[in-house]
Amino acid sequence: MTTPPSLRATAPGERLYFEDFEAGMSLDIEGPTVTEAQIIEFARNYDPQPFHVDPEAARASPYGGLISSGFMTTALAMRLICDAYLLRSAGLGSPGLEELKWLRPVRPGDRLRLRMTVESARASRSKPDRGTVLHRWEVFNQHDELVMTMTGYGMFLKRPSAPA
Prior knowledge:
- The chain has helices at residues 5-8, 36-46, 50-53, 55-59, 70-84, and strands at residues 26-33, 97-102, 111-123, 130-140, 146-157.
- The chain has 164 residues and is α+β, with helices and mostly antiparallel strands.
């Protein structure tokens, strides 16, 4: 299914609402090229395992070289999601993830790309002003190899009714 116009482009200041996320729609988002310095900096702060922070130790590891922390890959994906649509949405946060899998190592020089697919969208029965969207996010490297999948929920306000 193609991406509805509401996610491809909106007027400045226009927000995305629950109704803009239709089951089956998808959006491809170009991402950054990951650098060795970024991998090491993130890992020193948050996941200081030797194969994330020490190129020499990483060469002797089963990975044969420095790799990104999976949490860094997840954080990069979240940044892409925010920049592409979440920051201009009527989002209310998330009750959590169903799944997060790191399938391949992300290495220095990898260029990432994210595909968001709406799995389902369900209006709230108890709070009629909102709904919940189940997203599937897939992160690929420059070789179109799937490096990460994540499935989770987002809560969004419904579009306000026009004044009578």
